[in-house]
Amino acid sequence: MVSKSIKSLLALAFSLFFSGFSAMAQHPEEGAKEGHENGQEEKLDPAKIIMEHIMDDHYFHFFTIENKENPEKTIHGSLPLPVILYSPQRGFSMFMSSKFHHGHEAYNGYKLEHNGEIVALDAAGQKDETVKVYDFSMTKNVVQMLLALTILMVLMLSIAKKYKRGEGVTTAPKGWQNAIEPVITFVRDEVAKPNLGHKYQKYLPYLLTVFFFILVNNIFGLLPGSANVTGNIAFTLVLGVVSFFVILFSTNRHFWAHIFWPPVPHGVKPILVPVELLGVFTKPFALIVRLFANMVAGHIIILSFISLIFIFGGMSKVAGWGFSPVSVLFAVFIYMIEIMVAFIQAFIFTNLTAVFIGQAFEGEHAEAHH
After folding, report:
1. Whether the Cβ atoms of residue 86 and residue 136 lie closer than 8 Å to each other
2. 131-149 pLDDT, tens per residue?
3. Do residues 252 and 206 share a domain?
4. In terms of domains, do 105 and 188 share one?
5. One domain, residues 260 and 115
6. Is 324 within 8 Å of 309 (Cβ atoms)?
7. What is the tens place of the pLDDT at every residue in 46-99?
């Protein structure tokens, strides 16, 4: 048993090391090209590489085998994704992102910038500001989110079929039922019931959907070479906006009366009313920022530890190899914490959503109790 645990830990360490190595080597040809042109040795820019790794892109990048003698023969281990563009001046364009050759070449009058933006070019090969480009491409965040959603739906539908057949109802639960059923029970008993009272059944499907949707994307984001979907502000923004509308549609007259006529002395009301009204919008904003910041922070810390190997290696090969075990161990430690954070952040988002929904019809609790 101990030997299996050690093997699993070593496999995790090597996975982290090579995923970090691929992240550090994601675009080495750019720095090498600039360095050769200026007659200087290539310098590693960890901040730029880390930001490129956590940002969305038009392809999945796994590794790069650099050819310093001939940069054009550098091998990229990547999976190109479909590019779907629309321009009122040029119409629709569809092609694979490999046509851009990692941003080094233009195709069909378009070019991929280093920040991931696709711009239109004029006849001279310069950016054409007069052409508006709408990007509907299948980026790695979109593809991975759809893949995670598909796996989640297949898993949940297979479990639902087992319950319809009586498995887990008249008999003991089997397979994935053993793992999913306690989680559903936990969300129901520890999140929905305490915060929503007698209305918990009405909101339980939404809370379970949010919890498992965030959880599965958090876990997928921890795989080497994958995208950090929950670390994308657009992803958390949509979740926050959906929760915001659910909260608004759950409000009643007691909720709005408390905001526009709070039970405080009349002299304080003009000060408290704007604060209470602002609180309606800060609640979903807190959900958005909390999930985004926590998921981005973990990836940045792991990549920072991996980048220290290359920073020390640039000073001295002995220092680079000597610091490698320390850096990998710290990265593994943070990775273990990130696995817990994947579950914790899904729980926190779901729990806070339930708390805010419960506050929206708080007056009804008092009436029901009375």
Report:
1. yes
2. 899 999 989 999 999 999 9
3. yes
4. no
5. no
6. yes
7. 777 777 777 888 888 777 777 677 766 677 778 888 999 999 988 899 999 888
The Cα 227–Cα 221 span in angstroms is 5
Residues 89 and 236 in one domain: no
Residue 247 one-letter amino acid: I
Same domain, 234 and 91: no
Residues in CB range of 342: below 8 A, 6 or more apart: 215, 218, 219, 221, 222
- 149 plus 254 within the same structural domain: yes
- Give CA 169 to chain center in angstroms: 36
**Domain-ending residue, one of 137, 158, 181:** 137
Question: Residue by residue, what is the 3-state secondary structure of 142-158?
Answer: HHHHHHHHHHHHHHHHH
Other beta carbons less than 10 A from residue 179's beta carbon: 11
Residues 234 and 121 occupy one common structural domain: no
Structural domain contains residue 65: no
Amino acid identity of 229?
A: V
- Report the distance separating Cα 244 and Cα 286, nearest Å: 11
Tally the domains of the chain.
Answer: 2
* CB of 16 closer than 8 Å to CB of 332: yes
The answer to whether the CB of 185 falls within 8 A of the CB of 173 is: no
List the strands of the sheet with 91-96, edge to edge: 91-96, 82-87, 134-135
Instruction: Outline where the chain has alpha helix (H).
Output: 2-24, 28-38, 46-54, 140-164, 176-187, 193-196, 200-220, 233-249, 253-260, 269-315, 317-360, 362-369
Look up the domain containing 126 and give its range: 82-137
Q: How far apart are CA 99 and CA 138, in angstroms?
A: 15
User: Which residue bears the tokens 């880390």?
Assistant: 50
Q: What is the pTM of this model?
A: 0.81
Residue 226 included in any domain = yes
Amino acid at the residue 219? I
Q: How many residues are listed for the chain in this entry? A: 370
